[in-house]
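Reopening: structure tokens for the uracil complex, inputs below.
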Amino acid sequence: MNRNCNTPAMNSGELVKLGLKGITARVLECKKCPLHENATNKVIIRGSERPKVLFIGEAPGKNEDESGIPFCGRAGKVLDELIDYMALEENEYAIINTVKCRPPNNRKPTHSELKTCRPFLLAQIELLDPEVIILLGNTAEQAFCVSPLKWGEAVNMQEGKYLVKLYHPAALLYRRSLMEQQKEMIDLNKKLWQKI
Ligand code: URA
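Re-run output (same inputs, fresh job):
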């Protein structure tokens, strides 16, 4: 797949062979970066294992660390609102993050943390094999892409596979005015997942 993207620092191919359950086991035992030291729970995936659309967020926050479920707090409510707006059914999407452990004080993951966790991210993407990847914000873009994307402009990665960068739901919490722009970007791209 031509993702125009970073190559993994570790071998994500080995992880792909383990399947999604094997990846979960590897994440649970992972101590490759300091983030694991304060993690109450590793936060791995929410949603379908055969998603049409895959959302990639930044990192678990407090609620996610406590529950082990991606986007289950306030930003998650906004994401759920967007998913409703996109008219996606429960079995049509999945949500993952660039790193699986909560960074202290909700800071952004460092470049090194992103690089260490990237093989898990890439292996999850390969196994989930979505038609559309939605990068939620700049950190997801940084984790997945070498060159910057334009907000809301879909990139065709290979036949039938698209990549789009949208605003992170937390940004919409603090600037509700961005919600209108987010919905416009969704409207522009909805043909990618709504094949009517
Ligand atoms: N923000 C994220 O990027 N991911 C989560 O899981 C929750 C909040």
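The CA atoms of residues 9 and 115 lie 6 Å apart. Residues 4-9 have pLDDT under 50 and may be disordered. Marking as resolved unless the reporter disagrees.
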